[in-house]
Hints:
- The complex is a heterodimer of chains A (253) and B (353).
- Chain A has a single domain, classed as Thiamin diphosphate (ThDP)-binding fold, Pyr/PP domains (Rossmann fold), CATH 3.40.50.970.
- Helix content of chain A is 39%, strand content 15%.
- Chain A contains ten helices and seven strands.
- Chain A is globular and about 50 Å long.
- Chain A starts with 22 loop residues before the first helix and ends with a helix.
- Chain B is of the alpha/beta class and 353 residues long.
- Chain B folds into two domains: 214 residues, Thiamin diphosphate (ThDP)-binding fold, Pyr/PP domains (Rossmann fold), CATH 3.40.50.970; 111 residues, Rossmann fold (3-Layer(aba) Sandwich), CATH 3.40.50.920.
- In chain B, strands 3-2-4-5-7-6-13 form a seven-stranded mixed β-sheet, sandwiched between helices. A five-stranded mixed β-sheet of chain B has the order 10-12-11-14-15, with helices on both faces.
- Classes of the chains: A alpha/beta (253), B alpha/beta (353).
- The interface between A and B is large, with 37 and 40 residues.
- Strand 2 of chain A pairs parallel with strand 9 of chain B.
Amino acid sequence: MIVFDKPKSLTDTPLHYCPGCTHGIIHRLVAQAIDDLGIEGRTIGVAPVGCAVMAYNYFACDMVEAAHGRAPAVATGLKRANPDNIVFTYQGDGDLASIGMAETVHSATRNENITVIFVNNAIYGMTGGQMAPTSLPGQVTQTSPYGRDVKTVGYPIRVCELLSTLDGPEFIARVAVNNVKNINNARKIIKKAFENQINNKGFSIVEVISTCPTNWGMTPEKALEWVDEKMIPYYPLGVYKDRSAEIQAKEDK
Amino acid sequence: MADKVLMKGNEAIAEAAILAGCRHYFGYPITPQTEIAAYMAKRMPKIGGTFLQAESEVAAINMVYGTSSAGYRVMTSSSSPGMSLKSEGLSYLAGSDLPALVVNVQRGGPGLGGIQPSQSDYFQATRGGGHGDYHMIVLAPASVQEMADLTITGFELADKYRVTAMILADGTMGQMMEPVELSADSVKTFDKPWAVTGTKMQRKHNIINSLSLVPEELEQQNFARYERYKTIEENEARCETFMMDDAEYCVVAFGIAARVSKNAVIAAREKGIKAGLIRPITLWPFPKKTLLDAADKAKAFISVELSMGQMIEDVELAIRCQRPVMLCNRAGGMIPTPEQVLAKIEEAAGGKM
């Protein structure tokens, strides 16, 4: 009996991520969703600039590497060209919520029929730990060495809450991958975000609260605890918008 | 043979793009090229294509990047300030060896500048515009017919060499109306086995990418790209020559400046001055050989430009500084008159350099 196997839609290339980083888990969850839905042969992934920049080596489906923050625009071009393809972006917090905020908001409001996997670890990892748009108040980073001072640099951006004010997007949810329960829930939600696209429902974004032990300056174990203690209280988990479910609920009344 | 229709230059580009098989247009409003977007907004939904007004020039060029990755003919258009914003995407297109057609209907700059015609994006266009070592094929139409013809040529060359082709027009070319003949009869298409369309579980995954962290590999990629550029320089340089057989005073001008210069050359001939015109149709690759050959007989060259003098550097390089090169120019949206160009030819002929 096989109890653990690598998803088919991941390649054999060893991941370059730091020890304890949860990108590996999130790659696996995305690949499992692709496997479960049997869509690898028609899926195109768009990699970001950031820690996941080389995701094109890890996913076995066709891949495109986008400029920093532009993945939703690139995905729009891909999806409009071939609506039968399943197109997903995989983006970090600097990519999606800072330099690419316009692309994020506008692809959401167009209800572009794509799936966005948004990995929020509250820091710029690839460049060595600078303050991100999602860094927490008081968080020490290379570019906020005295802690994020909200009086001078403002507050973190809660992407799910912000996008939920739009009429456009189909599905918005935030999950975490710091324990088995959260991982199992994340698996279901990520699969749903792909199913929505297959069913032509439109823009589906899953924010995944992730860790960065290296740049947080913590052990992997402590980083997982920090997610519970600091991240989730600021970024509550849950489904923020599910238009089809809302319509169904109204009809049922 | 197709019928002649009266069209604006901008509309001719749009219709020719459709004839070339382009079904995807992404753009952002900016004067003086908005007719292209307006035309596409009307036509694309009727023919099963995409017209999408992007949130920014940056987004538009990255949508182009996406559709080109999927192997489709795709275009965007803008004017000078917008082209600066697209430059990031132009660099990525080059780094990923993706074909695309980009139209720049130039206006006066720098900064927000004005909305009147200009050729002051010559450096930006012919040197690439964005970061890194790369070139685009730059096509400079001088009539509404050429706006259409070079659009089709641009798509073909872009696909053939996996590069971006740019139509470098100006506000006059965009707004001017002339009769034009449109035909899709001889449009060439190219296979794109590199495109991302889904593996269908029948091949290894395709990757569209400009990242290469190993310097030895990145260098080899640059070498390979420049081998392709060399082929383009050898095979695709185009120009029109006018009264050049015995020309002693050679005017070099493109686009609207060439139309003005042609009148000046005719007027100079009437005065007994052996003037001629070389009109580059490709600005990159620049028609170096034609200019160098002309230097055998020519005593002087005159670069006529709607800028502070940009192409003049390519003229000097092409003739290896063997002859004096004079500048006849206007800037900021102004256009030189035939009289101004004639006066410069007379000045050259009078030896007052």
